[in-house]
Amino acid sequence: MNTFTKISLLFAMIASISINAQKHHEEPKHTKTKEHGKHKLAFFTGFTHVSSAFYEHETHEESTGKWVPTIGLDYFYSLNKKWSIGTINDIEFDNYIIKLDNEEEEERVNVLISSVVAKYNINHQLGVFIGPGVEVEFSESTKNFFVVKAGVEYEIEISNGWEIAPSLMYDWKEEYKTFSYGFSIGKRF
After folding, report:
1. Strand, helix or coil at 159?
2. How many CA atoms lie within 13 A of 173 on its CB side?
3. CB count, 10 Å around CB of 56?
4. Are strands 66-78 and 105-121 parallel, antiparallel or unpaired?
5. Residues 64-123: pLDDT tens digits?
6. Helix or strand or coil: residue 104?
7. Is the per-residue pLDDT at 25 higher than 80?
8. pTM for the complete prediction?
9. What is the set of domains in the chain, with CATH numbers?
10. I want to staple 158 with a disulfide (CB 3.0 to 4.6 A). Which of 10, 105, 132, 162 is the partner?
């Protein structure tokens, strides 16, 4: 079973559990948006797995990939209680080499992935998102890649508009794919 199939099954299971839980749980009278505003700013920290990456000093044979520390800054605007639009901006702090489809090698150093996403809230805590973006590396000899980012996050309200949200994300990049997990600490205003 490939990674895409595993991620798809995970999304389906979470959605099914959430829909069943929603049938047995009454929605609170006030939503987070009404209480704390339509804007949300969040700081993300986690790890990204780059399955096609290998180190410079390693042999250029089959690789099991590399875990890369990742931080980010996200912004969302709530259109209504079900839909939001936003931007997800992550920086992967490491350098690695990937093999491109044409068998050339490309070094990636501290890349920035910036995406514009649409988010659908399945219930008041669980949301799924997807959207286009770009991966940029700030040096002269590198390529930028088109990205499609998809993910799921579970928002847990702490107090006064503050929340913590564990998340899983998958990036389909023009030349390779990555999987990320982590959590964000956000504030609604």
Report:
1. strand
2. 26
3. 10
4. unpaired
5. 688 999 999 999 999 999 999 999 999 999 888 887 777 788 888 899 999 999 999 999
6. coil
7. no
8. 0.77
9. 41-188 (2.40.160)
10. 162
